[in-house]
Amino acid sequence: MLTRTFSGAIYIILMLGSVILGPYVFGAVQLVFLFLCLLEFQKMYNTAEVSIGKTSFILSGILSYFIVLLFLWDVWGIQYLLLIILIVFKIIIGELYRENKYPIASIGIEILGLIYIVLPFSLLNFFFYPEMNYGFPSGSLLVGFFIVIWGNDTFAYLSGMAFGKHKLFERISPKKTWEGTFGGALFSIIAAIVLSFFFKELNAFEWIGFALTIIIFGTFGDLFESLIKRTLGLKDSGNIMPGHGGILDRFDSILMAAPFAYIYIVFVLN
Length: 270
Prior knowledge:
73% of the residues lie in helices and 3% in strands. It has helices at residues 2-21, 23-46, 54-72, 83-94, 103-126, 138-163, 178-198, 204-232, 247-269; strands at residues 167-169, 173-177.
């Protein structure tokens, strides 16, 4: 627990510190985490019959992320986002030149990696720009997002250890329980109410809706990564974070919660 807490604290300091220091620092810090997640994803599939090209996959992900950043930084216009389509077709065409037993499966896994990892990391940067989040201040939304998702993960873990009896999804994640899920959700809703007193751009009901979106899809994100690991026969995505496993293990709930949180901003808060 001590090791887990220490490594988790360093991760939280890096994330919140980059939010405080602004969009350019945040984008750069997320680039490092993005690279590590892409690397772990590729290594996970090195253990399977279906493999994906390391250099090609990671470069595709980083280039796609940079295209989004350059658009957000007003270096390029919105039309340059179409270059991401070229990257997708580069993956498809590139498979013609690889001697691969399962080329179609490899293409599907690489494109899944772009959607599953690069898209959420890119959307997190959208929170910083009023023109992309309908005028809501970036700091409040990002800080709130991270507090809710980390609170949900932490208290789901603690509640599950203390009270867990009924399995949530035993086929995919044998250790997760309904008691842990409700414990994490309860804390996150309380945290959302507290946030409404500090960040008044959203009222309490809007913060609760934001939190519920994060809780629901963060849990699905956690389960989806467990599905990948269970399919590949792995316990963790890596070992870079003592007590947590890999970076992908730490970002699993964020990766699915971020797109739906942004959808909530666009279609509900707008």
